[in-house]
Amino acid sequence: MASPKKKLQGLVAATITPMTENGEINFSVIGQYVDYLVKEQGVKNIFVNGTTGEGLSLSVSERRQVAEEWVTKGKDKLDQVVIHVGALSLKESQELAQHAAEIGADGIAVIAPFFLKPWSKDVLINFLKEVAAAAPALPFYYYHIPALTGVKIRAEELLDGIQDKIPTFQGLKFSDTDLLDFGQCVDQNRQQQFAFLFGVDEQLLSALVMGATGAVGSFVSRDLSILWLN
């Protein structure tokens, strides 16, 4: 079973993808971005090519290049680089997952496909299972964001027995306002030691009370990081 060097917890920065005025990716500033997060914010875990990074608006080639740059510039500076590899195409998602493993990423995350949507828990898990199998050595995280995907399968339902189907499953990025669903995810899976990463900044304090082990968000500030500093 995949096991991260350290449990993914605390603040995880959802990174933007820097662009030039011409709409090209500005790779030259990613090294500075890493230094800013580490030195100014005290944040050493990142979530790349997600919603904040507009990953699904990039080409597969661009996503690969962005992932490579973050892994390269973050070497010996960042603790964990998690790459979002979700796509409408299973093959593209598998390609991105395999690429993340090849470049030395620390984990992968996947959203539900949202054009031809999975209509049941089993269908969604089968999709996720196929992606996870493309990177069997990497921890796998499900990215739950139903407001954007339109997939209304409750996270609590999905997590029931998920490691039997996806042995590399390590946790959940929960980007939804349904705190009842989130609370049930935590309460019913305490023995598994999953990472429960909350993704709605405005409700973070409530999620922490309910058992969130970390936060993935675009609002990364020194004041907020105090919550996880020893």
UniProtKB/TrEMBL annotation:
Pfam families: DHDPS. Pathway: Amino-sugar metabolism; N-acetylneuraminate degradation. Its main location: cytoplasm. It is found in: Cytoplasm. It is an enzyme of class 4 (lyase). It comes from the Eukaryota. GO terms for molecular function: N-acetylneuraminate lyase activity. Its EC number is 4.1.3.3. It catalyses: aceneuramate = aldehydo-N-acetyl-D-mannosamine + pyruvate. One of its GO terms (cellular component) is cytoplasm. InterPro entries: Aldolase_TIM, DapA-like. Homotetramer. This is N-acetylneuraminate lyase. The gene is NPL.
